[in-house]
Write a structure and sequence with these properties.
By secondary structure, this protein is mostly beta strands. It folds into 2 domains: 66 residues, no CATH class; 271 residues, TolB, C-terminal domain (Neuraminidase, 6 Propeller). Helices cover 13% and strands 36% of the residues. The protein contains 4 helices and 24 strands. A hairpin with a 6-residue loop joins β22 and β23. α2 runs antiparallel to α3. The longest helix is centred in the first third of the chain and has 24 residues.
């Protein structure tokens, strides 16, 4: 009888219970190990020159690093995952150029896993001598960028394929740069003449945010729209990250410690700011990825691997299959889904297709968007 019992086939529910236990146990062990590696609470995309040229990588919240692009004839950099989680935007320049010459950039797009890379704005397209700083709109339907003459450029938006071009700014000096969207997509913040400005996404009269004598770049709205963080040149080889309300009030430092702290990127919940940093004790000359609480506490270096690691972006949390909202579809989401299998529930419990029941269709959706 004992032999027969050991040979009995397990039902699907029993398999899920056993598998769920194994998944949860594995996750606990993985999380414990990863915590010693200073991994981010969000999945990031970034670029690195660890292979010689720059390529785009993903760093998961579990500490796994995955290469997403692979073409040694280019430097691939400035990765931006679309808010719907489906497409990866990035720039390419000839290998060895990276971000030092915006007259050599071309804009590319790929699937979120890096497959099917293809060019959407060629170098020199539309009569543009320079182009850069492309950013997705919140609904993933449009892209904003600066482009134009060699002195800087104006702000333009395009559709998700680089077409349907719309002019946003008409500054006479043509030196508008570093655009990004407000959370509701109605406004664009950008840098002009060393200060931070805001303009309606459809164009119009801009309003000034920063007004002091310091030179500011790279502004980004917080996810709730209450703040804008940006990069400030304090002095030679000293760059700070500052923030203020969109009307310029409550200007304060997030980090200003005498080092090079560059290019702020908010976490999806607004609690953290990611950036790349070159500290004075870094003899190798490379940038590393760091994070800091939005209130300026908790400065932490991230373990992203070898090479110079730059331009981190915390990927959006509304990815299909990302049940727990950490920006990646992995064993943690599988454990939640398995625990609620064949039960009624909502998206937070694994109902990914909106049927009201957690079933095999939800497993299929999760598998389709699996990250690790």
């Amino acid at each position: 009888m004992g032999f027969i019992r050991r040979q009995q086939k397990l039902g699907l529910g029993q398999i899920l219970v056993v598998s769920g236990f194994a998944v949860v146990l594995g996750y606990v062990l993985l999380k414990t190990f990863a915590a010693t590696l200073n991994t981010p609470p969000n999945t990031l995309v970034f670029d690195s020159n660890r292979t010689g040229n720059y390529e785009v990588y993903r760093l998961s919240a579990a500490g796994a690093v995955t290469q997403l692009t692979n073409d040694s004839t280019y430097d691939s950099w400035w990765p931006k995952l679309s808010p719907d989680g489906q497409q990866l935007l990035f720039y390419r320049t000839p290998a060895g150029t990276h971000d030092t010459d915006y007259s050599k950039t071309s804009l590319w797009i790929a699937n979120s896993d890096g497959s099917n890379p293809h060019q959407i704005v060629a170098n020199g397209a539309n009569g543009w001598v320079v182009q850069g700083h492309a950013e997705w709109s919140p609904d993933s339907s449009r892209i904003v960028m600066f482009a134009g003459n060699a002195g800087g450029g104006l702000l333009f938006t395009t559709d998700a394929n680089g077409g349907n071009i719309k002019l946003v700014t008409t500054t006479a000096q043509a030196s508008d740069t570093d655009p990004s969207w407000s959370p509701d997509g109605s406004r664009i913040t950008y840098a002009f003449n060393g200060d931070i400005w805001i303009v309606a996404a459809t164009g119009g009269t801009p309003t000034q945010v920063s007004t002091d004598s310091l030179v500011d770049y790279d502004p980004y709205y917080s996810p709730d729209g209450s703040q804008i963080a940006w990069l400030t040149n304090i002095s030679a080889n000293v760059w700070a990250i500052r923030a203020a309300s969109p009307n310029g009030a409550n200007l304060h430092d997030i980090i200003n410690d005498g080092n090079i702290n560059s290019k702020p990127a908010w976490s999806p919940d607004g609690s953290l700011v990611y950036f790349h940093r070159h500290s004075s004790d870094n003899a190798g000359g490379f940038f590393e990825l760091w994070m800091i609480n939005a209130d300026g506490t908790g400065l932490t270096q991230l373990n992203a691997g070898t090479g110079s690691n730059e331009y981190p972006q915390a990927i959006p949390t509304n990815i299909p299959g990302d049940i727990n909202g950490d920006g990646t579809v992995d064993v943690k989401d599988l454990a939640i889904l398995a625990a609620h299998f064949r039960q009624t529930g909502d998206a937070s419990q694994g109902d990914l297709d909106g049927s009201g029941t957690i079933d095999i269709t939800d497993f299929s959706i999760l598998a389709l968007h699996w990250s690790n």
